Amino acid sequence: MSKAELKKQHILRSANELLAKKGLMDITLDEVAAQAGLSKGGVTHYYPNKDLLLIELATMLDRDYLDKIENMAKKEEGQVGAWSRALIKVSDEDLTSDRAINNALVAAALASQKSDVATDSLEFMQKRAVTDGYDPVLGTIIRLAIDGLYYGELFKASSLEPKLREDLLERLISWTKENN
């Protein structure tokens, strides 16, 4: 990776940290620069405006998330429901740790309608959910349940009690293994 690419990654990771701290609040390039330990000019050299930075952040986080799912699914390659189980497990890890995908959704929302990152990602996940080797309706239900967990966290609404959340995830995983 080139020096410029490394710096861009550092800026994006810094923006992600800031977004995680501030939640849905609007962030500024000055704040991103301070978080990254750079001048504002050092940030605007790569990202001339906040919308471009947020779109790139959403794209990076989404790509990382989907790569984690694909890599985990490869461990069960050829098994029915492998991708759906990976979706459930990676989402659980993400929701209980850094919440990177929520940050990606926030970044995409803050960038306004200038990006199709979230839409493209949801369409991709739907296509994978219905081609995972079992009932496409069940794959869709699983994907929608995961979406619901993320949106509940994102909007601080309808958070599940930890035991219920754990039971839900276990049930979703068990559904991916039925009739195989």
Automatic annotation (TrEMBL):
- Domain HTH tetR-type: where? 5-65
InterPro entries (UniProt xref): Homeodomain-like_sf (IPR009057), HTH-type_TetR-like_transc_reg (IPR050109), HTH_TetR (IPR001647), Tet_transcr_reg_TetR-rel_C_sf (IPR036271), TetR_CgmR_C (IPR041479)
Swiss-Prot/TrEMBL keywords: DNA-binding, Transcription, Transcription regulation
Q: Which domain of life is it from?
A: Bacteria
DNA-binding feature ranges:
28-47
Per its UniProt record, what Pfam families does this chain match?
TetR_C_28, TetR_N
Q: Name one GO molecular function term.
A: transcription cis-regulatory region binding
**PANTHER family registered for this protein in UniProt:** HTH-TYPE TRANSCRIPTIONAL REGULATOR BETI, HTH-TYPE TRANSCRIPTIONAL REGULATOR RUTR
What name does UniProt use for this protein? Answer: TetR/AcrR family transcriptional regulator
Q: Which organism is it from?
A: Vagococcus intermedius
What high-level taxonomic lineage is stated for the organism? Bacteria, Bacillati, Bacillota, Bacilli, Lactobacillales
